[in-house]
Specification:
This protein is mostly helical. The chain contains nine helices and no strands. Helices cover 68% and strands 0% of the residues.
Length: 218
């Protein structure tokens, strides 16, 4: 492999990790777009698509792509408004982000535990600072992210999400990722404990806690 090939591989790897960052921090905003979920993961998935695309696609992704194509067809038979465009983008995101995530993890031999651990630590650090030190920490980068009123009403903090419930959902989502990918990893238990602290102490999302209890009781 020559120098130019190494540079290309490095650029691809950088794009992959930027894409994965926005997958794990989907609400982080640079420009106020008046929406909770931000488009950055979708944009980077589109950038990676020409690099990571394979002609043979699993049936799951074919079905997701078919849903997007059908949504484009439906758009021709209805009035094109903001709601219709958002729906179209959602269908595109469902396919593009799912497919590129799969291809990225193939390229990197799966999700590394160190990357996963750093994601959990970042979520925890932001939530901890918001609850105990500075309620408005990083609020400029979070949709509806000012914690002052939420803390007065006894609710938890938002972390890097629009509201505490979303923060709780992310915590549970990260727990599932840990158990599915790193069940035999000895360092997983402290990470799960940290996620439980985020769910019970930082986000205090009663709805998510209830759903988690129900899922464990099944």
């Amino acid at each position: 492999m020559n120098v130019s090939d190494i540079k290309i591989e490095l650029k691809v790897k950088v794009l992959i990790y930027i894409f994965l960052f926005f997958c794990f921090f989907p609400y982080f905003q640079f420009i106020d777009l008046q929406t909770d979920s931000q488009p950055y993961a979708l944009l980077f998935s589109i950038l990676l698509y020409p690099i990571l695309f394979e002609k043979r696609m699993k049936i799951d992704f074919v079905l997701l792509l078919s849903c997007f194509i059908l949504s484009v067809g439906v758009l021709f038979f209805r009035n094109v408004d903001l709601g219709a465009i958002k729906s179209l983008i959602n269908y595109l995101s469902l396919f593009s982000i799912s497919y590129i995530s799969y291809r990225c993890l193939n390229k990197t031999d799966g999700l590394s535990f160190d990357f996963y651990r750093k994601v959990v630590f970042i979520w925890f650090a932001v939530g901890f600072i918001q609850l105990f030190i500075m309620p408005s920490f990083l609020s400029a980068f979070i949709p509806r992210g000012d914690n002052a009123l939420l803390l007065k009403t006894g609710r938890g903090v938002v972390g890097l999400a629009p509201e505490p419930t979303f923060y709780g959902i992310v915590s549970v989502f990260l727990m599932y990722i840990g158990y599915l990918n790193f069940e035999k990893e000895k360092r997983l238990k402290p990470i799960i404990l940290l996620l439980l602290v985020q769910l019970l102490v930082l986000s205090r999302s009663s709805m998510v806690i209830f759903i988690l209890i129900i899922s464990f009781c099944r």
